[in-house]
């Protein structure tokens, strides 16, 4: 067994033995389904955790369920110093989302499609996954998963969020120094 920086365990097997029945563990968690969530973080605050109802998230859903009820309110509270950071998920880059952000005068941080993912929210998702995995009784149904996610989101220390956001400049500098190669964050 090997360990890696991605927090995954790598296992070396003999050639051709990958799909051997002894090497396969079947897991059917949450009825074979998962949930899509969205959360907004900033210094001093965070949004409620939004759990999408079933289905995929398109530009219209993103506008109606995220940009209008959450991002617009954050922009109003922050004023002109608000800079919105998301990633390049297809629903984030639709014409509808672009037009809505422009009409609300919400400035979006430039984020290259193939740039290293230095977004602090990715570390928040990792923290939530670890907290779920560490539960004595892990969730086994979709409803239990939703409740556990909301509990862990609410219990997450705001100081963790602050530290992640404030470390972004240092992480970006490190990434530039190694010319986009792997960084230990």
Q: Notable features of this structure?
A:
185 residues; mainly alpha; two-stranded antiparallel ribbon; 41% helix
Q: Got a strand count? A: 8
Q: Shape from CA axes? A: globular
Task: List the uncertain runs.
Answer: none
Distance between the termini: 23 Å
What is this structure, in a nutshell?
The protein has 185 residues and is mainly alpha-helical. Helix content is 41%, strand content 9%.
Q: Could you explain the architecture of this structure?
A:
With 185 residues, the protein is mainly alpha-helical. It has helices at residues 59-78, 95-103, 120-133, 142-155, 158-166, 168-177; strands at residues 2-3, 9-10, 37-38, 41-42, 45-46, 50-51, 83-84, 107-108. The protein has a two-stranded antiparallel ribbon. It has a two-stranded antiparallel sheet with strand order 3-6. Strands 4-5 form a two-stranded antiparallel sheet. Helix 1 runs parallel beside helix 2 and helix 3 (120-133) runs antiparallel to helix 5. The radius of gyration is 19 Å and the shape is globular.
What is the strand and helix layout of this fold?
Layout: E1 2-3, E2 9-10, E3 37-38, E4 41-42, E5 45-46, E6 50-51, H1 59-78, E7 83-84, H2 95-103, E8 107-108, H3 120-133, H4 142-155, H5 158-166, H6 168-177
